[in-house]
Amino acid sequence: MGSLRVLELYSGIGGMHYALKESGVPAQVVAAVDINTTANQIYRHNFPDTPLWPKTIEGITLDDFNKLSFDMILMSPPCQPFTRIGLQGDIADPRTKSFLYILDLLPRLARLPHYILLENVKGFETSSARECLVKTLKDCGYTFQEIMVSPTSVGIPNSRLRYFLIAKASPGSFSFQTSSEVRQVDCSSVIIWRNNASDLPTVSEPFCPGTRQQEENAEESRVLYKLETTKDARRKSDQNSDLSVQQIQGFLEPRTEAARYLLPPKVLLRYGVLMDIVRPTCRRSVCFTKGYGHYVEGTGSVLQSCMETELESVFKGLDQQSEEEKLQQLLKLKLRYFTPREIANLMGFPQSFAFPEQISTKQQYRVLGNSLNVVVVTRLIQLLVS
Ligand code: SAH
């Protein structure tokens, strides 16, 4: 196979480019396009030889695209119009305009790209934007598969459930049976996929840790401590005992300036009970989003760096204590944020990935939160091209 010419749209910090490299598929990115100046600085720093177009996609003409003569499109359109917390503006949201523009251009290209891979958030699968995408692909004669995958399914202790679509221009067909259903692969026991890249992952096991159905009863929803119910505790314990997922400790930096990343007292007091806390031996963490490092609620797990203290002993009865006592209790855990490097590790970025010096920690968290899991996308590219 000759080297594929790849167009990387919404390139950000280059998560797709890394996945392409890791996939082993002979390819070159002929153009990467993004308007975010911070992300673009980071992209250039890591891929100095890739042509990076710092402009809006809507500003690129059909002619410009034709001149690139690409065989593959890798893209992660803005996800805010589709997130559950967002307003779900969908195709009415101005941020979807560039994506609709791409769909409009696709049938008019001088040569259809042979492969397309798209990433987006959970929520995209029920959007009108997705309907437009599917219709365009069908009209152009593509065969495609939609899949929901989280990094736990490739053994990485981080949840980041995302929508993916992989498409091949006919007469290309996949090495697996495609289905018009959006396949769910949010389970860590997808061993088949891990061993053989040409297989489509399927949730085949009758028992799937973390997703087992249990009857809801009073005991299930009883709050144990730290606002957590019996059910939450069991879900976490199931995840932590799933040996097919690695431990967090394999993703930590050998030396960190721990003091720099410790949670300040104000944050501990205000958000302590809401935080998702993990230990190095855990096999789980929650999705890191772009607000990580300054807001706490729902933006990603924090790390307990003192192992001698049990969570339960700190949180039980905490609400009956004075502020000062509370703080003393919480400080015992030595809670810290994951560093940007550690988050990059959990997102599958190779060691060669680096930030230019002028990029602040806050900016680093921000761009990582917008990016994707490189290992998951690597597998999908292999699946697409195999
Ligand atoms: N996959 C990327 C992140 C994608 S996030 C990574 O690995 O980092 C979506 C990106 O789309 C953002 O970086 C944003 O700047 C860019 N973007 C949004 N609208 C755009 C438009 N109209 N034209 C070009 N880039 C756009």
Short précis:
The protein is an alpha/beta fold and 386 residues long. It is built from 14 helices and 13 strands.
Helical segment tally? 14
Helical content stands at 25-40%
Mind telling me the C-alpha Rg? 22 Å
Largest sheet: 8 strands, mixed
Q: State the end-to-end CA separation.
A: 11 Å
Number of strands: 13
Proportion of residues in β-strands? 5-15%
Going across the biggest sheet, name each strand in turn.
3-2-1-4-5-7-6-8
Query: What is the ordering of alpha helices and beta strands?
Result: EHEHEHEHEHEEEHEEHHHEEHHEHHH
Mean pLDDT: 88
CATH topology descriptor of the largest domain = Rossmann fold
- CATH level 4 superfamily of the largest domain: Vaccinia Virus protein VP39
CATH architecture term of the largest domain? 3-Layer(aba) Sandwich
Which consecutive residue ranges, at least 5 long each, have pLDDT under 50? 186-198, 202-215
Work out the oligomeric state of the chains in this entry. single chain
Using the coordinates above, name the CATH class of the largest domain.
Alpha Beta
What molecules are bound to this protein? S-adenosyl-L-homocysteine
- Based on Cα principal axes, name the global outline: elongated
For the record, the count of structural domains works out to: 2
Give the structural class. alpha/beta
